[in-house]
What we know:
The complex is a heterodimer of chains A (228) and B (247). Chain A is built from eleven helices and no strands. Chain A has 228 residues and is mainly alpha-helical. With 247 residues, chain B is α/β, with parallel strands linked by helices. In chain B, a hairpin with a 2-residue loop joins strand 9 (187-188) and strand 10. At the A-B interface, helix 3 and helix 10 of A face helix 3, strand 7 and helix 8 of B.
Amino acid sequence: MAPGPDDLAAVWLTVKLAGVTTVLLLLFGTPLAWWLARTRSRLKGPVGAVVALPLVLPPTVLGFYLLLVLGPNGAGGQFTQWAGIGLLPFTFAGLVVASVLYSMPFVVQPLQNAFEAIGEQPLEAAATLRASPLDTFFSVVVPLARPGFLTAAILGFAHTVGEFGVVLMIGGNIPGATRVVSVQIYNHVEALDYAQAHWLAGGMVIFSFVVLLILYTLNPTGRKARRV
Amino acid sequence: MKTLPLLLAFLVTTSAAHADEVQVAVAANFTAPMQKIAADFEKDTGHKPLLAFGSTGKFYAQIRNGAPYEVLLAADDETPAKLEKEGAGIAGSRSTYAIGRIVLWSAKLGVVDDKGEILKKGGFAHLALPNPRLAPYGVAAIETLKAAGVHDVLQAKFVLAENLAQAYQFIVSGNAEVGFVALAQVIKDGKIGSGSGWIVPAGLHQPIRQDAILLDKGRSRPAAAALLAYLKGEKARAIIKAYGYEH
């Protein structure tokens, strides 16, 4: 039994979700990681802890609270309705919001580590050459932190692909909108359709191995990668 | 080491003289009534049931891979039949312990009328139901929608839950305005306890038979057989009925 059109749709949706999530996380996670790496503010501890929360929380907790907060009786749901977006649960946009929260530590922490490893000297050197802070960031920091960006992007993408508990809670299993691969595998297994499940589940094992192999090959010293 | 055989003999005789334990896998939707029945069963027979609650599909996979359950109370009648055919269940031990009923339900008062006319009138964005591929209650919901002639119109509004508990969660959080749940989830003192609902007439869908079966691990275990017999008794029946199931 080959994978059916439903399975392929789920694969495509998963890739789309992970792609959008990774791009958003790199955009918003970079300034956040930079701030966490450089700040001496008292807020550094609390903000760092909030970013790391999804590492520790069971995904079902995150999904359960998102369902309540983003629902019509929750603060988030009332805001999105007021803003004319409507309600987010059971939509692709809702999954993107959930995935950004869920995968945040996997993007922010490698970036923060990479920024911290650069140290003061290259920044001071750039400043004596009268480079503006923005110029310094793009001409000095980004090239030096390149392995960090790579790790962040790969982990953010892969971790979103592996998301299950959160999607289960706020997804509603809608084809083309919220039925991602992990949910589709769950459906096959629960329906005792093991042959179909093996296609996707085996594919996930191979995908995850290849991703980690790339990661460890590109980062042979593996200081950051070992945090996985 | 003369004491060891003695010790063993002591252990064997004491456990035989005392009551036994029985490992039971129970469909999640039957959690509340089963806890009551188990307490009564222990009081009346001295046997101690160890209950595990979960999805029937997962129990099937676990039982086929050596899980220690002696009795299965499934959420359907297909899984016990399959287990019997595959030799993991004892032939001839199957019986229906409960027949489920479904309700079209809303967490708000006055949303669902007592004839289910809202299905034709519309006015809601999401209709939650258990995934018919996974849950017999979902199949019954689909049959009800087809009987009412609104299945095709409403299909775009479906939000599929993995199980009954999740369907309830979608509705109670307000994310789905209406949806199908089990009567057992919303019943209180013989009536719908909160919100508004339409108890779907049993004639609109195939009966949702929940079957029990004695598993291979429960073969020649008196406590397992006793539990299955107890489920058919007056006391258990009264509890099952009070929770919105038929028997």
